[in-house]
Structure formats: C-alpha cells, structure tokens
Amino acid sequence: MNIxxxxxxxxxxxxxxxxxGREVLTDCIASQVDLHRIYGGVVPExxxxxHIEAIYxxxxxxxxxxGLSREDIDAVAVTYAPGLIGAVLVGxxxxxxxxxxxDKPLIPVHHIRGHIAANYIAYPDLKPPFLCxxxxxxxxxxxxxxxxxxxxxLGTTLDDAAGECFDxxxxxxxxxxxxxxxxxxxxxxxxxxxxxxxxSKPGQNPYDMSFSGLKTAAINLIxxxxxxxxxxxxxxxxxxxCGAVSDTLVxxxxxxxxxxxxxxxxxxxxxxxxxRIRRDIQAAAARLGAEVYLPPLSLCGxxxxxxxxQGYFExxxxxxxDMTLNAYATKSILGETL
Length: 338
Prior knowledge:
Blueprint: E1 2-7, E2 12-19, E3 23-31, H1 33-37, H2 44-66, E4 75-81, H3 85-102, E5 106-110, H4 111-122, E6 130-135, E7 140-145, E8 151-156, H5 162-172, H6 179-187, H7 212-228, H8 234-260, E9 264-268, H9 275-288, E10 291-293, H10 305-316
Parallel strand pairs: 1-4, 4-5, 6-9, 9-10
Antiparallel strand pairs: 1-2, 2-3, 6-7, 7-8
Helix pairs in contact: 2-3, 4-10, 5-6, 5-7, 6-8, 8-9
C-alpha cells in the first residue's frame, strides 16, 4: 500500500511516499532554516507562505523519483495537529485536495504520533508495546505506546519543551538557528560540571517535567556575565545545560520503564539528535537490560516519511477523515483538543 504523506507543521515542507508503513520510497523536503536564521527563529507567516510555494512541486518530485503515477497512490496522510496553525493548514488543504481528486482515503496524523513512527522506519522489526520519549522543539512527553494507535501519556513538560529551551539559550549565546544543534556541538568540548544549573524535581505526577526554570537560570547566567564583563566558558556552559536537560529526562524514563515493565525504549523528535541525551539513554537502557531504539538523525527532525508510516497504521485502524478535516495548533496525542 503506497501512502502519499504531507508534513508542514513548522518550517519544513515535506512530501513522502511510504509503502506498508515501513518502507520509504522517497521523502522530499524543502527546508526553510536558512531563511528563518535571519530572524533567529521561525516566523509563522513566512513559514506558511513558503509551504504554499514548495508543496505542489514536492508532490510532483516525489512521484517522479519513485516512478509512480497518481493512480498508484492508495491513500493520503497529513499532519493535522499540532503546529503553527497557518503552516498546518497549508498541508491539510493540499492533502484534502489530493485525496478528493484521486478519490482516495484521507488520513489525519498527529505530529507526535508521527515522530514515534519514525522508529518503525528505522527499525522494521519494532512493534508495540514499548515506551517512547518524545523530545522536540514544541513537545516533551513520555508515552506508553500500547499499540500502533493506542497510547497513554505518562508524563509531559508542564511549561517549556526541551527543544525550545535549547534554541532560546543558543540564541542568547549568539549561536545560529536552530540553536540546539550548535549548542550540542559546543557542549562536546566543554566540562559539564563547571556551571551548576537547576533540575526540576518530581511533582504530583513524578513523570512530569519542567524546563522553564532551567532556561531562565541559564539565560540569567549569560546576561549577568555580560553585564559585569565576565568571560564565560561557552563550551562548558553548553555541556552543563545539556547535562541538566538529560538529568531531567532520563531518570523519569527509567522510572516509567520500571513501572510498566517494558524493556523496549524508543526515542523520537528533533532533540533525540542531541549527543548527550542519546548517550545517557543508551547507558540507562544498558543498566536495565533494555533494548533502545534511536532513529538516525535524518528521521529525528520533521519529515513526511514518519507521517506516512503512522498514516498506514491509522488507516488499518479505520482512522480516516472526510473533507471537513480541520487543522489544530494544539491537540493531545490522544485526540482531545487542548
């Protein structure tokens, strides 16, 4: 079954064709990073306009690369939530028009479910149930993946997402957007014990997290050094920051694995590319005797292949939509509007 998949939730326009949920025939991506770098972050209106300019050509490119015709497409999957509302609307309306024109099923896919499904592409033998830590620019959540379309949220961030904090601290340090990648590179040459940064403590739900205090502490430290003329060890500050984020994430994942009894742990989302978090996750999994699934860096960021993968399983579960499908800026992975 060939699924044409569309992703446009932020600043990457992507169209992919995925076969049977596991095999990526092509994944065409138009990145806007260089454009938004000028502004130090994503400008929603510009992102939406760039999606409009790129999406039609990417769909034609995807068909051309695979040698498939429009008649070879069996269904159309699209990210319908969450994301920048104007950006998501571009993808949803394009997917609706394609599904209508081809008379094919339209499959709405939650963006975070898509990130989880990136592991099905990277690891064709991976099947639920398993635990998944999703860490991205807009989301940080621990998910009990009970089946391909049945999930339970065990813990989430109560304020900022981990990826958002990486980008904002990187921007204050004068690093190019996206700040997370530059910060990770600098951290590899630093001492992670040089600066003492806070870790959020478990609250009523021990799996919930908080990153706003960490972000504020790091930014205040940077501003104070600038005001008094103190030279910062940038590499060590980055290493200390990465360590604090990892120390917030990994212990909660370990607790969740011990509670659920799972011995399969997947990681997903753009922050899953962070070398410190990957290293600490692998070490924790080894101590638990658990298998760990870390997608390649190419599948950590936003892409349409992951949407096509999850779309396949949503279709098998009967989760399709008609032409009234709308886009949502915020929506729970379980489907409830937030």
